[in-house]
Design brief:
The protein is α/β, with parallel strands linked by helices. It has two domains: about 200 residues, Rossmann fold, CATH 3.40.50.300; about 80 residues, no CATH class. The protein has eleven helices and twelve strands. It has an eight-stranded mixed sheet with strand order 6-7-8-3-9-10-12-11, sandwiched between helices. A four-stranded antiparallel sheet has the order 2-1-4-5. A hairpin with a 2-residue loop joins strand 1 and strand 2. Helix 3 packs across helix 4, helix 3 packs parallel to helix 6 and helix 6 packs parallel to helix 7. The two termini are about 25 Å apart. About 45% of the residues are buried. Bound molecules: adenosine-5'-diphosphate (ADP) and magnesium ion. The site of magnesium ion (MG) has 3 residues, from helix 1. Magnesium ion binds next to helix 1. It comes from Pseudonocardia asaccharolytica DSM 44247 = NBRC 16224. GO terms for molecular function: ATP binding; ATP hydrolysis activity. Belongs to the ABC transporter superfamily. It is found in: Cell membrane. It is a peripheral membrane protein.
Length: about 350
C-alpha cells in the first residue's frame, strides 16, 4: 500500500529567522567516461544563524561534494554544478565569478576539514597564517592582524596564545592543530562555518573537546554551522536539525529530536541501529546489509530499495519524491506513513 503524505518540492521551513545559507535543488555532476553524471542530486537544506544542521550519511554519499559546491571549491574540470541554487544571506553563489567567490570564502563562509593540515601550511608559523587570512579580506595593518590572530587562538582555547602564535603546526598536538584551524576559519568572523568530519581523526576525549568548542563558538558568534559527519552519535551531540544523505540525495530531513525518536526513512533507521551505544546494549553490530550503489549509477527506483527491509514492488519502479512528515520533516520514501521499528 502506498500511504498518505503530501508531496512537497522543498523541505518546509520554520519561519523564525531567514536562513543564512539556503541550498535548493542542488545537483553536482562528475564526468564518467566523458559523460556528466550526478553524484549529488536535488539536494535542499538551509541553516539559520546560531543553528547546527547535520549532514549525515555513509562514506561516498555526497557530503563532501555538497560542501565543496557550497564553498565554490569544486575543481573546474572534474565536477560541475548542473542545477540549483546556493544563497548566502540571499546572495546567489551559483554562477558567481571566481573573484567574488574568493572574496566570500574565508570571510563570510569558512570551512574546516578532518585533517587540519589540509588548511595549515606546515612551513609557516600559525600566527603568520592567520595574519595572511585576515589581511586577504580586511584592510588592516600587520600589527592589527597579529592582534586578531592572538585573539582568535585565545578564543578557541590555545593556552598562552600570545607566544604559541609563533609556533609551527608540527609543534602543536593533533587537538591543538584542530583548534588552530578553527581559529583561522573564525578570524574574519564568518556567518557560515562548514565542518567536514572535523573530529573523525581524533581520539574520543579530544573529539568531545572539539565538539564542545564548536558548540560554544556557534552560540557565542551566532554561526550557522553545517556539520558533516558519518556518525549519528556526533549528530546527537551537536545538531539541531539533520539532513540524511544516501547515494547523493537527502533521503530524510527533520529536527534532531524527531529524527531520533521517529525515523521516517528506513536508511535513517538503519543508521540509528548502527549507533555504538546500541551495540553495547544488543551485543552485536546491527549493520545495514548490502552496499550503496556506485555513486554515478542511477537505479530505476529508490536507491536504497535493494537494502531496504520494507521494500515493496513499487519501490523498485519509480524514484521516490520528497514527502512531508509533519511541520518541518521530509522523507524520500513512498511509504512515509510506515511505522518503522525505531532505533530501540
Ligand atoms: N571526480 C570524480 N569522478 C567520479 N566520481 C567522483 C568524483 N569525485 C567524487 N566522486 C564520487 O562522488 C561520490 C561522493 O563523494 P563525496 O562527496 O566525497 O562523499 P562523502 O563525503 O559523503 O564520503 C563518491 O562516490 C565519489 O567516489
Ligand atoms: Mg567526505
Amino acid at each position: 500500500m502506498i500511504t498518505n503524505g503530501s508531496r512537497v518540492e522543498q523541505p518546509a521551513m520554520n519561519e523564525t529567522s531567514a536562513p543564512v545559507l539556503a541550498v535548493e535543488d542542488l545537483t553536482v555532476e562528475v564526468p564518467v567516461d566523458r559523460i556528466w553524471r550526478p553524484v549529488v542530486e536535488q539536494v535542499s537544506f538551509s541553516v539559520r544563524k546560531g543553528e547546527t544542521l547535520g549532514l549525515v550519511g555513509e562514506s561516498g554519499s555526497g557530503k563532501t561534494m555538497t560542501s565543496l559546491a557550497v564553498m565554490g571549491l569544486l575543481s573546474r574540470n572534474s565536477a560541475r554544478i548542473a542545477h540549483g541554487s546556493i544563497r548566502l544571506t540571499g546572495q546567489e553563489l551559483v554562477g558567481a565569478g571566481r573573484r567574488q567567490l574568493d572574496q566570500l570564502r574565508g570571510d563570510r563562509i569558512a570551512m574546516i576539514f578532518q585533517e587540519p593540515m589540509t588548511s595549515l601550511n606546515p612551513s609557516m608559523k600559525i600566527g603568520e597564517q592567520i595574519v595572511e587570512a585576515v589581511r586577504r579580506h580586511r584592510p588592516v595593518s600587520r600589527a592589527e592582524a597579529r592582534r586578531r590572530a592572538v585573539e582568535v587562538l585565545d578564543l578557541v582555547g590555545v593556552p598562552s596564545a600570545a607566544s604559541r602564535v609563533n609556533s609551527y603546526p608540527h609543534e602543536f598536538s593533533g587537538g591543538m592543530r584542530q583548534r588552530a584551524m578553527i581559529a583561522m576559519s573564525l578570524a574574519c568572523d564568518p556567518d557560515v562555518l562548514i565542518a567536514d568530519e572535523p573530529t573523525t581523526a581524533l581520539d574520543v576525549t579530544i573529539q568531545a573537546q572539539i565538539l564542545d568548542l564548536l558548540r560554544q563558538m556557534r552560540d557565542e558568534l551566532g554561526l550557522a554551522l553545517l556539520f558533516i559527519t558519518h556518525s549519528m552519535g556526533v549528530v546527537a551531540d551537536i545538531c539541531d536539525r539533520v539532513a540524511v544523505m544516501y547515494h547523493g540525495q537527502v533521503v530524510e530531513q527533520a529536527d534532531a529530536d524527531d529524527l531520533f525518536e521517529r525515523p521516517r526513512h528506513p536508511y535513517t533507521e538503519g543508521l540509528l541501529r548502527a549507533m555504538p551505544t546500541l551495540v553495547v546494549r544488543e551485543g552485536r553490530l546491527p549493520l545495514i546489509p548490502g552496499r550503496p550503489p556506485q555513486a554515478t549509477m542511477r537505479p530505476t527506483g529508490c536507491a536504497f530499495s535493494p537494502r531496504c527491509p520494507y521494500r515493496i514492488a513499487a519501490c523498485t519502479e519509480v524514484p521516490p519524491a520528497l514527502f512531508s512528515t509533519g511541520d518541518t520533516g521530509v522523507t524520500r520514501c513512498i511509504r512515509p506513513g510506515l511505522p518503522l521499528q525505531g532505533a530501540t
